[in-house]
Every structure is written in C-alpha cells, then in structure tokens.
Design brief:
With 256 residues, the chain is α/β, with parallel strands linked by helices. The protein is built from nine helices and twelve strands. Helix 2 runs parallel beside helix 8 and helix 7 runs parallel beside helix 8.
Length: 256
C-alpha cells in the first residue's frame, strides 16, 4: 500500500480549501435556519397571541369553565384598578350561571366564546367545531343581548381547521402570550405573580382562570404592579388592530 506524503508548502492551500468548505457549510445552515421562518413569516391559520399596538396596553382575560363563586370579587378588583377584561365563557357554564354572565356584561367587561362543552377542538371534525362555537354564542347572546365575535379554543388546543372554521363564522381566534398557570395548585401566589409580571409586555394577552386556588387573591397585586408601571388593562377587542393586519408566524398581530 502506498503512502501519500504532503509537503509542508502544500499545507496552506489545503487549509484554505478546507476553511472555505467549512464556511460554505456553516453559511448554508444559517441561511436554511433563517429562511424557515421568513418563508412562512405570516399565517392565516393560527390564532392571535399578542398585538403590536400603540400605547402601553395589555389585555386581561379569564377562562370560565367551572365554578363561579369568585366572579363578584374578581369584578370588584378589576373595577378598583380601572381595568376591563374579556371573559371567555363555556356555554354550559353560562347556562348554569346566567346571572354571572349578566353581571360580567353589566360591569362593562367583554363576554367571549370558549366553546359549548369545553371540547378538544383540535381533534373534532368541522361540523362539531361549528356546533360548539354556535351553541355557545347562542347562549351568550341570549343572555347579554350582544353579538359575540371572539373565540378561544378550550385547553388552547386548535388545528388550522379550527381557526379557519371560526373565521368563516366571523370570529377571531384568540390565544395568549402570558400564561399565569393559575390553575396549577402546585404554584404559589408568588409564583403566579412573578410569571405574569415578568412576561407582560406591550400588546400582551394574559391568561387567567376563575375558580382557582389563588387567582382571586393574587389579582390585586398583579393589577397594582401593571398599572403602576403604566399599563392600561383592557379587553381583547380594545387591543386588537382594526382594518388590514397580518398575523406573524409567532401569533403576533401586526399592521399590514
């Protein structure tokens, strides 16, 4: 077997070629990584997670699916801090607690659709998605006398079909970019407070739930901090962009 000897003076060009090859590989990987989001920069099949809005605003939201005893105190706290919120309400919950739905509406907050039975929207056919959204809105609109135009899929689960069906039914599908995780009994009030305060930015949509271990009691300190730092706490409809807009690949609604 022959042995290949490389003269010392040939090292430089060989090293140069090797360096060029390495740079080409690295550049290809970087370009590929960059083009992945850019090629899919705007989407029409995902919900709105946050909003590129003017002013220092955030949207407070509550998902209502279980009990209702804490609703009056939550509404009192919101009023104390001049905050308005959007309540995404399950249809069955509304049927069980129609007076709470009326109270939410009468206190100046937004009533929105959270599906009729809290179903897993990402795993059901189009006909069932329509039924879940339609039944829920029928109940809410009968109670409040107002049209519902916002929808949040239960559990945050959705498919492109979910969003497209909702849009055909003239609903904007809303998620969140700040999750309080207040439904987790393992989290303390301080944990929930820290999660919300550290993550909230201009245009954030914040997720809370009623009928949890800590939400009713931690909400005052959260609103105290947000308002003290210049945030205006408003409904989802108040924060959404009107007219032409795009939804970025990360779910942020931006001006077209």
């Amino acid at each position: 077997m022959g042995v290949l000897f490389i003269r010392k003076k040939d090292y430089v060009p060989l090293l140069f070629v090797a360096a060029v090859i390495i740079l080409v590989i690295i550049n290809t990987l970087i370009v590929k990584e960059y083009l992945a989001p850019v090629s899919n920069q705007y989407r029409d099949d995902i919900p709105i997670y946050s909003v590129e809005c003017e002013g220092n605003k955030c949207a407070i939201t509550f998902d209502c699916a279980w009990g209702a005893d804490d609703i009056p105190n939550i509404l009192d706290t919101l009023e104390k801090y001049n905050a308005r919120a959007t309540f995404f309400i399950v249809g069955i919950w509304a049927k069980k607690y129609p007076e709470m739905v009326k109270l939410i509406n009468e206190r100046g907050h937004e009533v929105a659709n959270h599906g009729y039975s809290h179903a897993h929207m990402g795993n059901i056919p189009e006909s069932k998605i329509r039924e879940e959204i339609g039944l829920c809105s029928d109940i809410l609109e009968e109670i409040t006398g107002k049209k519902v135009n916002l929808f949040r899929p239960p559990y945050g689960e959705y498919s492109s079909t979910t969003v497209k069906v909702a849009r055909k039914m003239e609903y904007q599908t809303i998620q969140w970019d700040v999750d309080s995780l207040d439904w987790k009994d393992s989290l303390s009030k301080q944990d929930i407070y820290n999660r919300v305060i550290k993550r909230t930015a201009n245009g954030s949509i914040i997720l809370f739930h009623n009928d949890t271990k800590h939400t009713e009691n931690v909400l005052p300190s959260i609103l105290e901090n947000l308002t003290a730092n210049g945030f205006e706490c408003v409904t989802v409809s108040d924060i959404l962009l009107k007219g032409d807009y795009k939804i970025r690949y990360d779910g942020r609604q931006i001006k077209d």
